[in-house]
Design a protein that fits this description.
Distance between the termini: 23 Å
Number of strands: 20
Shape: globular
CATH class: Mainly Beta
Strand content: 35-45%
Number of domains: 1
Radius of gyration: 17 Å
Order of helices and strands: HEEEEEEEEEEHEEEEEEEEEHE
Helix content: 10-25%
CATH topology: Jelly Rolls
Length: 269
């Protein structure tokens, strides 16, 4: 069952590449911050120290995924950063993913990471939120949705990041289709990628600029965060990938409004 879950999840990631909307710039030149929107910090990981904080994250889905193998070896915490690698070892390809499932799960709020994107086409870094019940039914309000806060498919352009929402895993699976945000220089240095999730909409931000608002498939259940370095389905698609490549994350922060912080955040051990 778990293998099927990861297979479906990977197929959805591939659909993101295929079904992308035309790129667009920000909705306005106004810059937002969680504090200005009335949110307060509720959870964070600054990735200090020299190992993954296992009270906050677990290496996710160790085993085969697409053409690679998710491995703990490809996950590093050093110099104040999380580093999610794409590695080539002989004939083997290693990918990486971590998630907060069972450790930190929440609904609504402002979810932000500051990260430096991978250099190569072929592989791609991703920051997303996932429902533990997404394959159990088709109503996203009840069973949740996959919310792709950011994915960087470099073959779409060096200044474009993508966002998406998927729900109803199974024969009637649905999607908003990939939303592309154009921001000059986003592939260089560190940038902030964020989602504001409310009971009414999802809002996607890059560097504080608002790019998209989505009112479809609003989840009303607790979900968990994932950071990952993904691979495509065919080896030909990594012909221009430079190994090792890395998706570097400076921090992840979750902000919530006071009324929701108590009622909509669940931490389990």
């Amino acid at each position: 069952m778990m293998k099927l879950f990861f297979t479906v999840s990977w197929l959805i990631l591939m659909m993101n590449v295929i079904a992308q909307r035309p790129a667009q710039g920000p909705m306005s030149q106004k810059k937002y911050s969680p504090e200005k929107l009335g949110y307060k910090l509720a959870w964070q990981d600054e990735f200090n120290g020299n190992a993954l904080d296992t009270t906050k994250w677990k290496v996710r889905g160790v085993g085969e995924r697409a053409i690679a193998y998710v491995s703990e070896e490809a996950v590093k915490v050093e110099d104040g950063y999380l580093k999610l690698y794409a590695l080539q070892k002989g004939d083997s390809l290693l990918g990486s993913a971590i998630g907060t499932q069972g450790l930190f799960m929440s609904k609504y709020g402002y979810y932000e990471c500051r990260a430096k994107l991978q250099r190569s086409p072929g592989v791609w870094g991703a920051f997303w939120i996932q429902s533990p019940d997404i394959s159990k039914g088709e109503d996203p309000a009840v069973y949740g949705a996959e919310i792709d806060i950011m994915e960087f498919f470099k073959k779409l352009g060096t200044d474009i990041v993508s966002h998406n929402v998927h729900w109803a895993y199974g024969p009637h699976q649905q999607t908003t289709h990939g939303m592309q945000s154009y921001l000059k220089g986003v592939s260089e240095g560190f940038h902030k990628f964020a989602l504001e999730w409310t009971p009414d909409k999802y809002i996607f931000y890059v560097d504080g600029y608002k790019f998209y608002e989505v009112t479809q498939a609003i989840s009303h259940i607790d979900e968990y965060m994932i950071l990952s370095m993904e691979y495509p389905s065919e080896k030909e698609e990594i012909s221009k990938t430079i190994f090792p490549d890395v998706f570097v994350v400076d921090y992840v922060r979750v902000y919530q409004k006071q009324s929701s912080e108590k009622n909509h955040t669940k931490k389990t051990k």
